[in-house]
Design a protein that fits this description.
A hairpin with a 2-residue loop joins strand 20 and strand 21. This protein starts with a strand and ends with a strand. Helix 8 packs parallel to helix 9 and helix 11 packs parallel to helix 12. Helices cover about 30% and strands about 25% of the residues. The protein is an alpha/beta fold. The model has no long low-confidence stretch (mean pLDDT about 95). The strands form 6 sheets. It has a 4-stranded mixed β-sheet with strand order 22-23-1-24. A 4-stranded mixed β-sheet has the order 2-15-17-16. The structure holds uridine-diphosphate-2(N-acetylglucosaminyl) butyric acid. The site of uridine-diphosphate-2(N-acetylglucosaminyl) butyric acid has 25 residues, from helix 1, helix 5, helix 6 and helix 12.
């Protein structure tokens, strides 16, 4: 397993270009299952999760070609309506093939994703919604078996706001008969990006960007061209890195209109920013001010940024409190940050952080994607050397993070494992 070796205590300086959003790319790739036509996608990030998704889609018979950040998908010869356990277990987003396969082919067999490091993460809302659209669903031997003649539009109110749940039901509804109303829909920009692609494919969707999506089903969808939205989590992660380690960076190819919650907190931290429509120039030359926050659905503070802001808080000048409301077990980074000399205690879903003047490098272990990113940030701010083990988590969701950080002066190196 590869490791990252980081010599902390160096200021960051230079430009970082942000990649396409993982959590937009994954559902968008699954939309390729909805049409016999061709999707020409650009700004697709180079990530393990994208590779896994393309492998999964390829197994269904979807034709896939990939050239750097461009992916072309043609769905004329899909003949295997299945997502097997060995792929689903490595990536929960595989559940996103369920809605499209069922809607277009009337059948799908998808392995149930298990729990994961950040929580139990059931998919009951995906199933409940598809049943409301008329699917017959049975669960047997760890697989979801779904069948229908033709999905029929209806009104669906999910019990909670779910991002991939909304995406699955939205994709299914585009090919259902009649009108579907999705109440309590997730408003994340990644859902909106998927909706824009679906409209380009011929879907009829109103209320895009709101919590009430109204879909008029169409008989079929066609090919389209689409550029995946810029990754807001990647952008905010690099801004946290400069807030914690100090320096002067410009991030480019970003979308500042979808970063409000993170930018508000970064201002509170003391990051000085000049903001254009697709760039942010950020400067930090003092110790961060601690920030207290709760994670919540978009447009609130994203759970996917909780760990990275906690890393900033560990070196801030004072105490802060972080409450995680979306996932029940998303504090796996706390023990590892404490190994670097942070002072964090947790009580249920709240972490209490007492900032220290200086973290000190140590060997630590990455536990999930965003926890890994937070350890990189802490290591950049720490004095001395940190070795982060199990960085395959990082590779799942960040496009060449260490290359981008090296280019702005971080002393960071990937140590390849021999096995
Ligand atoms: N939930 C249920 N039942 C369901 C669906 C969700 O109980 O059927 C619960 C979850 O267990 C969780 C909450 O509802 O407590 C919200 O989960 P959601 O379904 O919104 O999460 P997700 O769709 O599985 C996506 C992102 C996550 C991100 C969350 C929240 C993708 C591929 N994944 O997950 O991204 O944290 O939304 O914003 O879009 C990451 O990128 O590191 C990551 C984990």
């Amino acid at each position: 397993m590869d490791k990252l070796l980081i010599q902390g205590g160096h200021r960051l300086s230079g430009d970082i270009v942000i990649s396409g959003a993982k959590n937009a790319a994954l559902p968008i790739l699954c939309a390729g299952l909805l049409t016999a036509g061709t999707l020409e996608l650009s700004n697709v990030p180079n990530l393990h999760d994208v590779t896994t998704m393309l492998k999964l889609l390829g197994q269904t018979g979807l034709e896939v070609t990939q050239d750097d950040h461009r992916v072309t998908l043609t769905g004329g010869a899909i003949d295997k309506l299945e997502a097997p356990y060995d792929l689903v277990k490595t990536m929960r987003a595989s559940i996103l093939v369920l809605g499209p396969l069922l809607a277009r082919f009337g059948e799908a067999k998808v392995s149930l994703p298990g729990g994961c490091a950040i929580g139990s993460r059931p998919v009951d809302q995906h199933i409940k919604g598809l049943q409301a659209l008329g699917a017959e669903i049975t669960i047997e031997g760890g697989y979801i078996y779904a069948k229908c003649k033709k999905l029929k539009g209806t009104r669906i109110v999910t019990d909670m706001i779910t991002v991939t749940g909304t995406e699955n039901l939205l994709m299914a509804a585009t090919l259902a008969e009649g009108e579907t109303i999705l109440e309590n829909a997730a408003r994340e920009p990644e859902v909106t990006d998927l909706a824009h692609l679906l409209v380009a494919m011929g879907a009829k969707i109103e209320g895009i960007g709101t919590d009430r999506l109204v879909i008029q089903g169409v008989a079929e969808l066609h090919g389209a061209k689409h550029a995946v939205i810029s990754d807001r989590i990647e952008a905010a992660t690099f801004l946290c890195a400069v807030a914690a380690a100090g320096g002067d960076i410009t991030i480019r190819n970003t979308r500042t209109d979808i970063l409000d919650a993170a930018l508000d907190k970064l201002r509170e931290v003391g990051l000085q920013m000049e903001i254009g429509p697709d760039w942010i120039h950020a400067k930090m030359d003092r110790r961060p001010t601690p920030v207290t926050f709760r994670t919540t659905e978009y447009p609130g503070f994203p759970t996917d940024m909780q760990a990275q802001f906690m890393a900033v808080n560990t070196v801030a000048d004072g105490a802060s409190r972080v409450t995680e409301t979306i996932f029940e077990n998303r504090f796996m980074h706390v023990q590892e940050m404490n190994r670097l000399g942070a002072h964090i205690e947790t009580d249920g879903n709240t972490a209490f952080i007492q900032g220290v003047e200086q973290l000190v490098g140590a060997p630590v272990m990455a536990t999930d994607l965003r926890a890994s990113a937070s350890l990189v940030i802490a290591a950049l701010a720490a004095r001395g050397e940190t070795v982060i083990d199990r960085i395959y988590h990082l590779d799942r969701g960040y496009d060449q993070m260490e290359v981008k950080l090296s280019a702005v002066g971080a002393k960071i190196e990937r140590v390849k494992s021999s096995k």
